## 1
Amino acid sequence: MIQVTIIKSDGAYKGFSFSGHSGYAESGSDIVCASISTLVINTINSLEKFTSDSFMSRADEDEALIEVTFDGQLSPEAKLLVDSMILGVSDVAESYGYVEMVYKEE
């Protein structure tokens, strides 16, 4: 199961994390893991390329973990990118399962 945590404070995004493997299929054939990975990596790359927002990211392949923490209030562009990522992840979760989404308020 892929664990997705979206962290907010007063309704504003503060970060997100993804951990684990879906278990949908064997490694190399797991379309759920591939879909989620693509959405997350594309969002991080897009935040770097298309916004000036400051954030820190950490990835640990052995733990199957990606974490992103935003340094401040997100620009409208960055918020849209994160909203889009959440929409895509939610659609994968609804279509296939194997993904648990948690919203955490700090």
## 2
Amino acid sequence: MLDFLKRDFPTYSWNKYPHWLDDFDTSTFSTHSDKNVTLDEVKEAVGKELEGPPKLFGYQVLHQKIRQEHFLNVPRDLVYAVMQEMDPEGLESRAVGVRSRKKKQPFTTRGPNWVHSADGHNKLMGFQNDTFPLAIYGSIDTTSRRLHWLRVWTNNR
């Protein structure tokens, strides 16, 4: 990966990063699952974890814990399926974005030119601000949605 980064982004000094890459055990981050792990082993590991404090974890954190502490290299969707089978209420209560959302309140203003919304878009700036250096900023009237100004700069500072 470092070779590709050096090739694609030559303006950045990449020689200072290999020292921290050596500290990681890359076998821990393997994305391939072990085909020899049985479903009963996964159920046993998830059951042990659901008995203690990790029962409050979501399936992604529990998946990582099973891989690191129980040394079971299994896919995350398998851990989710086992958790769904063993503790469906708990899994649903921890689901992000499923909870009831706050209803939108009506937006009121005293009239035109009373409230202006300004925002910027720096995503086009790119890596180290030299790939595609464009920063776009604008302002609109919140009542009439009339565009007051739109500016494009080559610097976002």
